[in-house]
Design goal:
Elements lengths: L8 E7 L6 H9 L6 E8 L5 H7 L5 E5 L4 H11 L4 E4 L5 E2 L3 H12 L3 E11 L17 E3 L1 H6 L8 E4 H6 L11 H10 L3 E13 L9 H18 L4 H21 L3 H14 L5 H4 L6 H11 L12
Parallel strand pairs: 1-2, 1-4, 2-3, 6-9
Antiparallel strand pairs: 4-8, 5-9, 6-8, 7-9
Helix pairs in contact: 7-8, 8-9, 9-10, 10-12
Length: 314
Amino acid sequence: MTLPAQEGVSIIVPAYNYAEFIEQALDSALAQTYPNVEIVVVDDGSTDQTPVILRRYADRIRVVTQDNLGLAAARNTGLREASHGLVAFLDADDILLPGMVSLLHGTLALVGGDCVLVAANHSYIDASGRPLAKYPRGPSETVEVTRRDLLLRNRFATCGVLAQRDALLALGGFNEELARVEDRDLWLRLVERHQILQVPDVLCQVRLHFRNMSKDAELMASCLHDMLAAAFQRRPADPAWERRCWAAYHHECAWMYHEAKDRWRAVASELRSMTTCPAPALWADLAAPPWFRVRSLIRFLLGLRAPPPPLTDE
């Protein structure tokens, strides 16, 4: 695959009642150094001032309005409406750094072959846009992201992706039955057919605030379970390896419950992780500190607060 030097890129922005953030998101999309960018905003039935703000950008963006159908449906609408063969995704509360599209396009063009998605690393900001010390753990060099990697944990934020539109549409796009983790589910289905790469560059900022959809621990846990179960149904794994993946899942759930201040569910989930796969070597699969589950369990039992480990999905 060879990409034309100035091939157009459509940045898809799903928006639902994020009036306080969407201007910063749109400004970051408009500030891209890549010369051929289309911005498609899908207003997913907003009832706040989002439509008013979008009208201010009317000559610089394209707006598609629909009833409130959810994030996956809004992204799929953007995929169908996009004019270009390459797409990026920007949630209305996140920010792209100016060189994001240029760098990822250059990487995709350079690699060619069966690579249909390139992802970047990301950093975190708070509701006011201030940098957070929470650590993303991206690679130190450009690496291939495998199915094994994505079964264990999410590797990149959706706002750090540049992908071939046709490849995503061929899979049916995002699973609209998943209220959460629909992005990781799509990347898993994609990597079963194509190559995915991740570059070490930090090219986007993920905003953490009280309205983040991923704050709903019980729903996140349910969707993660369904995503993994579907992946193993499509392509069964060695039983020992599958146990390791489920142990990683229960550990992730434990931290989500901990962040939701559901202390005993956090304890129960961590214990289930340890009994599902007692092997201490799981820390290497997750690039976590040795004895990380034991340390987490102690923290949960004592009710100590701390930033979650970098295992949690966005």
